[in-house]
Design brief:
Rossmann fold, binds zinc ion, single chain, Zinc Finger, Delta Prime, domain 3, 20 helices, Helicase, Ruva Protein, domain 3, 434 residues, 7 strands, two-stranded parallel sheet, alpha/beta, 4 domains, five-stranded parallel sheet
Length: 434
């Protein structure tokens, strides 16, 4: 075992902090634009990075600062080797100043920045000011900065980062190039964790890594901190899904998928058993509700766009299940299941009887899944009218059949007649589950 050689004291989030734009996971829409700006020599005076915590705003700010000041960039990526790059990495650069807006939010805190702007950079091309959690700056502090922000000397660049874009003053936002960083997709986090586990010689299964990513809810830093925690907790270096689930109070992938399957089958007994089991194992019901929603969301995306789409946030194992479940249900039923779940998420915030609400909602969702929708009935009527065998089965109809069917000669019901029927039954909003 290489246990003793590992420098355990460096947290993974720090050790594997991205050093170039190419290393940054899940923010290609931002890194591409920044690199392009560098390439064209069209760098703005101020940038504003908005996004949830732990997704790499500060890291991206530092990479950008390095790319601006690197003396030996490769393809507009910082080299990481020159004096400027090294100084920025260890937070020692005279020309790059970082300020934590949460703890330094008063006018006197930004005064040194305003004073420093007058002096050209000492060892690099630009003087860069990075202000983190910048929504915390007082209005007075922003007003003090405003003039500098409007017409900074050509060698001054500002990078602001915040989790709360809504709290930013419009006068500031309009003076910045704004970038919205997104939550990192679960499968992207899994891929990164897998890569790191290989280097660190950590034995963790795919489902264990998936559970870490699920627990981190789109934040790479949280995912890496959890992995750190698990490595020190498991001395044999072997991390199982069970370990991770216990830490986060999550339900296993397969248990979640089989609960979704029970809902789709309308299997009341299986639904109640699953809830009972999760409840007695102390699983987090609110998280379960969110994850179920995510599962059905993925199912809809899969059914609408197939497995190849980037919108699908799923690992290969999850996609296999989606493929199976998609065969057995009509998409309109899933929309209605999702409605029921969304209603529950809302109520979960206030209710004290979490388990009862969960049971009632999932049973209702199961009923929705097993009862045909008006759309399905109408399709069956159309098929009957066109002389085709009607089916209101759970299986979705293949797309080509739809376009051929209504074209048959002398259909008993034509389109206007159909519409009159739909009108007569109260339009498509009728709830046949009640
Ligand atoms: Zn460099």
């Amino acid at each position: 075992m290489a246990e003793n050689e590992k420098p355990r004291h460096i947290p993974l989030a720090q050790k594997y902090r991205p050093m170039t734009f190419a290393d940054v996971v899940g923010q290609a829409h931002v890194t591409r634009t920044l690199k392009h700006a560098l390439e064209m020599g069209r760098v703005a005076n101020a940038y504003l990075f908005i996004g949830p915590r732990g997704i790499g705003k500060t890291t991206l700010s530092r990479i950008f600062a390095k790319a601006l000041n690197c003396t030996n960039p490769h393809d507009h990526e910082p080299c990481g080797e020159c004096e400027n790059c090294k100084a920025i990495t260890i937070g020692n650069s005279l020309d790059v100043t970082e300020l934590d807006g949460a703890s330094h939010n008063k006018v006197e805190d930004v005064k040194p920045i305003i004073d420093a702007v007058d002096f050209p950079p000492s060892a690099s091309k630009y003087r860069v000011f990075i202000i983190d959690e910048c929504h915390m700056l007082s209005t007075a502090a922003w007003n003090a900065l405003l003039k500098t922000l409007e017409e900074p000397p050509p060698y001054v660049k500002f990078i602001f980062a915040t989790t709360e874009g809504d709290k930013m003053l419009a006068t500031i936002v309009s003076r910045c190039q704004r970038f919205d960083l997104r939550r990192i997709q679960t499968n992207e986090i899994v891929a990164r964790l897998k890569h790191i586990c290989e280097i660190e010689k950590v034995d963790a299964g795919d489902d264990a890594l998936l559970a870490i990513a699920r627990g981190a809810e789109g934040g790479m830093r949280d995912a890496l901190s959890s992995l750190d925690q698990l490595i020190s907790f498991k001395e044999d270096g072997k991390i199982t899904e069970e370990d991770v689930l216990n830490i986060f109070g999550l339900v296993s992938r397969t248990a979640l998928e089989s609960l979704a399957g029970a809902i789709l089958r309308g299997d009341a007994a299986a639904i109640l058993n699953a809830v009972e089991e999760f409840d007695s194992a102390g699983r987090n019901m609110r998280r379960l509700s969110g994850e179920l929603m995510q599962h059905f969301r993925n199912l809809v995306v899969y059914m609408a766009l197939g497995a190849g789409t980037k919108s699908l946030e799923a690992t290969p194992e999850q996609i296999k299940t989606l493929e199976e479940q998609a065969k057995k249900v009509d998409i309109s039923r899933i929309y209605r299941i999702a409605d029921a779940l969304a209603e529950m998420e809302d109520k979960l915030r206030y209710t004290l009887s979490v388990r009862a609400l969960m049971e009632m909602t999932l049973l209702r969702a199961g009923r929705i899944a097993s009862v045909a929708s008006v759309e399905e009935l109408m399709r069956a009527v159309r098929q009957l009218a066109a002389g085709l065998p009607a089916s209101v089965q759970s299986a979705p109809q293949p797309a080509p059949a739809k376009s051929e069917a209504p074209q048959r000669a002398n259909p008993i019901l034509d389109e206007p007649k159909m519409n009159r029927i739909i009108e007569a039954v109260g339009g498509t909003t009728i709830d046949v589950t009640r």
